[in-house]
Predict the 3D structure of the following.
Amino acid sequence: MVARRKTLTEFMFEEQRRAPQATGDFTALLNHIRLACKRIAFMVGRGALGEAVGEAGATNVQGEPQARLDVDANEVFLRSLEYGGHLAGMVSEELEGPYPIPDAYPRGKYLLAFDPLDGSSNIDVNVSVGSIFSVLRAPAGADRPQARDFLQPGTRQVCAGYAIYGPTTMLVLTVGRGTHGFTLDRGFGEFILTHPDMRIPADTREFAINTSNERFWEPPVKRYVAECVAGRTGPRGADFNMRWIASLVAEVHRILVRGGLFMYPQDTKDPAKPGRLRLLYEANPMAMIVAQAGGAASTGRGQILDVQPTELHQRVPVILGSKNEVERIERYHEEHAAGLDQPYTSPLFRERSLFAPS
Ligand code: MN
Ligand code: MN
């Protein structure tokens, strides 16, 4: 008796039949995304044996050094998605402006925003990396979409997902009815539904933040982390654990599997950047995935999904994960704005070092 587990294809067909007006267009689009992720999984899995290793010797539009794999993964996405006839245009972390569908191919009704390779600085050290994608509807008449056509709030996403290339390759996605995880069976090359309806517990005792930026954090974030680090004898009355992988996909995946809180908050390090992560192809898709799993995603001052984008490569502060902790940090921002958190921002409190609470 063969174990009967649903494939991604079956899952998509079931979803399609639930939507009476569905044409199958969307199912086909997801098929192409799946193929792109499988190709990238293969490339990443080759490691130093593959062609695509090391630095590309160039920087992307945001001034970050590109790895060869960043460039190649971007090519895989473009080549896998441009010909299918389902997209009107694409936006990528690696491209300055929207990528127009070549004239040789038909154009469709969806827009795709993606980060072809997330966490690429982790490749050399063999730590999980991933791809992130967000699907929007093209505005009516946007046959050749301009940047403004992509500037839709995250609430308008019809689908969001990521692939994680770790010890196993997984595809985690939502089409607005829960968040579901599929594991790639390398034997026959299909994603299998192994994590149906992933849920993030409302409470957690685990947080993730880059503490080397502590001196740049805003007071509400300093307060939150100091309280966690103070542990059982502090105001939270409980010991907390910390994790930091520096790969958004891996951080979100951990939170989906066992709860937790991830923060890349607003800081004062570079006044030109109100956050580190990009809204359209990092924060928004992850916010939808987390929200569909019962978690929350905030800038600290409101839901990420409600932010009206103004630029393609706009950055936002990201605080996401277990709902009660995200809401607590939002409350700390409110209390700070109202001047109600003096004990935590007094000079005395600031003198205490994060790792040596007095
Ligand atoms: Mn990224
Ligand atoms: Mn990337």
